Amino acid sequence: DCSVPCVTPTLTIANTPQTVCEGDTPAALVASVTSGTATSVQWYGPSSSSATLGALISGAISLTYAPPAS
After folding, report:
1. More confident residue, 43 or 49
2. What average pLDDT does the segment 51-66 reach?
3. In the chain, how long is the greatest CA-to-CA distance?
4. Neighbour order of strands in the sheet with 64-65
5. What is the pLDDT of residues 6-48, one digit of tens each?
6. Cα separation of 58 and 66, whole Å?
């Protein structure tokens, strides 16, 4: 239970979607908090379904995530 009203933060993600060709480096993904507050974030990899999260990306906890080229 929260002692103050709980507000789920709203984030927007820059540089999505993007098309990356083989051999190219994807642009960094940048989350911006548009309402509420967020003290940390967690990035997830792709999923085969829009209804589920993909795999947790270990160590990806800042507002910016630079996906690897491979």
Report:
1. 43
2. 88
3. 50
4. 10-14, 29-35, 64-65
5. 778 888 999 888 888 988 999 999 999 998 888 778 998 887 7
6. 13
Secondary structure, 3-state, the chain: CCCCCCCCCEEEEECCCCCCCCCCCCCCEEEEEEECCCCCCCCECCCCCCCCCCCECCCCCCCEECCCCC
Amino acid code (one letter) for 43: W
Q: At residue 1, does pLDDT exceed 70?
A: no
Cα–Cα distance for residue pair 11/20, rounded to 1 Å: 23
Give the C-alpha distances (Å, rounded to integers) separating 39 from 26, 30, 45, 64: 25, 15, 21, 13
Extract the tokens encoding 45.
Answer: 């990899």
* Terminal Cα distance for the chain, rounded: 42
